[in-house]
Design brief:
The protein is an alpha+beta fold. The protein has a single domain, classed as Arc Repressor Mutant, subunit A (Orthogonal Bundle). It is built from 5 helices and 3 strands, in the order H-E-H-H-E-E-H-H. Strand 2 and strand 3 (62-67) form a beta hairpin.
């Protein structure tokens, strides 16, 4: 997941889709907003989808992309799992 978010363009896509959550956006809206060429955007969206960071749904002739809130929450939980544990451990050592 981190590798998928490791490019500026993909990070911008995820942030844009989070801003449009829960509705999501069609590809042409994403392209218009970010100014990414269609073939490049398609590649980035596919990479994000493969990693479970975005979900896609076909509605007629349109592909709607949405941020996968559950996957992104798991990623944040992973990052915060150890938050401040060293700080509290060092306080205990200092007060002993």
């Amino acid at each position: 997941m981190f590798a998928a978010l490791g490019t500026g363009a993909r990070l911008r896509i995820v942030r844009l889709l989070l801003a449009a959550h829960p509705t999501g956006m069609v590809v042409s809206e994403i392209q218009s907003e970010l100014g990414i060429p269609a073939s490049t955007l398609s590649h980035h969206l596919d990479k994000l989808r493969q990693q479970g960071l975005v979900a896609v749904e076909r509605q007629g002739t349109f592909l709607w992309y949405r941020a996968n809130q559950d996957s992104l929450q798991e990623l944040l939980d992973f990052l915060y799992a150890e938050c401040c544990t060293r700080t509290s451990a060092s306080r205990k050592v200092q007060s002993s």
